[in-house]
Design brief:
alpha+beta, about 40% helix
């Protein structure tokens, strides 16, 4: 694009972003990638990143040809019609996969990267959520090209210093994040059994807040985040109901976990149910440093996170119940 912003010049394509299109055979589909390269980063429940730089000479194929091989094997063995983005960085590979119809291999060559980014809507940039996109569009920054052309100082005034700088780099195609092999996702749980059958919805919500807070504190202490939350409600007749909700973004933030728990609970409509116990399980845990977090322009959220960090420090020093959210209900039974 003549006269457009200057973009970072990426290297040759060597990163695959694979959306499997199916989650029930996720582990088996993930193994298809590890047969090609050990550098596979799981993105549950249905995607993964792979760095195939070391596999190009071994297989005698370029990255796009390896992507087509992955698609062929996934379709033949498991009936999964994958979509694969191929580029020189995780950012561009992910955007390539999401830029068109499913069930294709889309490659962004180095000479195509600037033009591809210039034409994409700002909401397509990884890390830009709906609220941030609306704010940027209100300033006329409705495409990635316009975002890249904007002065960094302007973006920092709109979004804050760190978020503005990070977004400006992404808009220019700069993504130094490596593909980091990750262990299989694990889970963490917290449970409460009532002393007697509990009919009071407000009391149950108070306990759910306590459990969400307990999970959040544990995850933050271990530098983990969760991608999904599962609620199990146990009744007086020994039956149980289990529901799972995917989270908008990976998190260990107690308010986000509590909101998901409330939504799961309220959707069950338990007005007359005799509830004996409730349990929360954080699913698909991953290292916090590997999880993308939506850029936030909400000052209240940042203050809440700072307060949460201060409360965590108090707990580590004075005990788990030194600081708790208002409205939580401390456990009374093991």
């Amino acid at each position: 694009m003549n006269g457009g912003p200057e973009h970072h010049a990426p290297g040759e394509p060597h990163v695959l972003y694979v959306h499997f299109g199916a989650s029930e055979r996720y582990d088996a589909l993930l193994a298809l990638l590890t047969d090609i390269t050990p550098l596979v980063q799981a993105l549950p429940p249905d995607a993964a990143l792979a760095d195939v730089r070391g596999a190009l000479r071994y297989f005698g194929r370029d990255a796009a040809e390896l992507a087509r091989l992955v698609r062929l094997r996934a379709l033949a063995l498991y009936g999964a019609d994958c979509t694969v983005g191929v580029a020189a960085s995780p950012l561009l590979a992910r955007m390539a996969a999401q830029a068109g119809e499913p069930g294709q291999v889309r490659e962004i060559r180095p000479e195509e990267a600037a033009d591809f980014l210039d034409r994409r809507p700002v909401a397509a940039l990884h890390g830009v959520g709906p609220a941030t996109a609306r704010t940027l569009c209100a300033y006329g920054l409705d495409s990635v090209g316009r975002l890249a052309a904007a002065p960094p100082a302007t973006l920092q005034r709109i979004l804050g210093a760190a978020a503005g700088r990070r977004l400006h780099e992404r808009a220019r195609g700069i993504d130094p994040t490596p593909v980091t092999p990750t262990a299989p996702p694990r889970s963490a749980s917290a449970e409460h059994r009532f002393e007697r059958d509990e009919l009071d919805a407000a009391r149950r919500r108070g306990v759910l807040l306590t459990l969400a807070d307990e999970l959040g504190f544990r995850l933050r202490a271990e530098a983990q985040v969760t991608r999904a939350l599962t609620l199990t409600v146990r009744y007086a007749d020994r039956s149980a109901t289990t529901r799972t909700r995917a989270l908008a973004e990976p998190t260990a933030h107690t308010p986000a976990l509590a909101a998901a728990a409330y939504a799961l609970h309220d959707a069950l409509a338990l007005q007359r149910a005799r509830v004996r116990g409730v349990a929360l399980r954080a699913e698909e845990l991953t290292a916090a440093e590997l999880a993308a977090r939506q850029l936030s322009i909400d000052g209240r959220e940042e203050k809440a996170r700072r307060a949460e960090a201060a409360a965590d420090r108090a707990r580590r020093r004075f005990g788990a119940y030194a600081a708790r959210p208002a409205g939580s209900d401390p456990p009374r039974a093991a």
